[in-house]
Amino acid sequence: MINFVVIQTPHDPNDFYQIFYTEKSFKASIFIDGKRISKSTIHEIVQKSVPSGKHKITTSWGGWGALKNHATFNFEAGKTYYFGIGVGSIKGKIVDFGFRASLTTLSKEEWEEYTLQ
After folding, report:
1. For 30-34, 73-77, 83-87, 99-103, which range has the lowest pLDDT when averaged over its residues?
2. Do 69 and 58 touch, CB atoms closer than 8 A?
3. Three state DSSP letters for the chain
4. Deepest in the core among 33, 51, 103, 115, taking most CB within 10 A?
5. What are 78-109's pLDDT values in tens digits?
6. Cα 3 to chain center, whole Å?
């Protein structure tokens, strides 16, 4: 089972154009092996079962094709995986989120914290 949660969006309340957008305006598209499984906003939970083996996960913001991030993982049968999608720092750790749509692995406890917000 693969679990996803959107941690942060590209929304920055200090940017002028943000008067037209809210944090919920941004939706993260999640693809597994090229097939979209979700278009989710902040704190939304997505769960998907995949067969064991290598799978390519792609994340992007809305229709912004240039802002895609790809990662390939080798998933084991019977294991549960947790991922966060977002930008900026997480719990004080600076994380490089590439094109603002990257994926980071989370512990079960971290994932639960973000899903309870």
Report:
1. 99-103
2. yes
3. CEEEEECCCCCCCCCHHHHHCCHHHCCEEEEECCEEEEEECCCCEEEECCCCEEEEEEEEECCCHHHCEEEEEEECCCCCEEEEEECCEECCEECCCCCCCEEEECCHHHHHHHHCC
4. 103
5. 999 999 887 544 444 434 334 455 778 889 99
6. 10
Beta strand 69-75 with 45-48 is unpaired
Question: Cβ(97)–Cβ(86) under 8 Å?
Answer: yes
In whole angstroms, what is the distance from residue 71 CA to residue 102 CA?
9
Residue with tokens 């080798």: 74
